[in-house]
Description:
This protein is of the alpha/beta class and 228 residues long.
Amino acid sequence: IELEIKPGETLAIIGSTGSGKTTIINILNRFYEIQKGSIKIDDVNIKDYELLSLRRRIAMVLQDVFLFGGTVLENITLRDSNISREQVIEAAKMIGAHSFIEKLPGGYDYKVMERGATLSMGQRQLISFVRALVFDPDILILDEATSSIDPETESVIQFAIETLIKKRTSIIIAHRLSTIRHADNILVLSKGEVQEFGSHDDLIQIQDGHYKQHYEMQFLEVVETEQK
């Protein structure tokens, strides 16, 4: 695989299970090292960055949000004393999470149970978005971050994603094409190889293309749901 993401651009990655989407994310974060080839950020090999410094500049929002036993505030700041309550509230307002957090008993001091058991999937996801924004990363990675969201929450999540990716380099892995159609480029993977690469408008023109088939299938599902 060879590709380039320019600063501030959004790259969407789609592909079936086992196509290599999550592997790209893992090697970008150096969860394990690659045997050959190179990954560069600003023309510097990521192996030359101090690991902690590299990961401080990358934020990930995963499908399965992990929340620990503690307050909402602590779950957002990860108990980093350099992040103030005011910064958290400002980020929550930008994301669209402030109103729901305020309604919780105790607001930002509401005690979250292990894994966020007392919160809905959408609420947990919004907290993870605020967490990502508050750390102000240069590179943002969203891995299937909207796959378990109900339609009512999806518009709030969609707004949160648009807020997060603004002015930062972003990589979005998603099945829902509503999340990715506005990306600068879309990478279609299959069994670890690039099948297609380009904008939504470019890929939709490819006759019998993987992306076009995927798009038309989802579009039909939406139409059928609306008719029901």
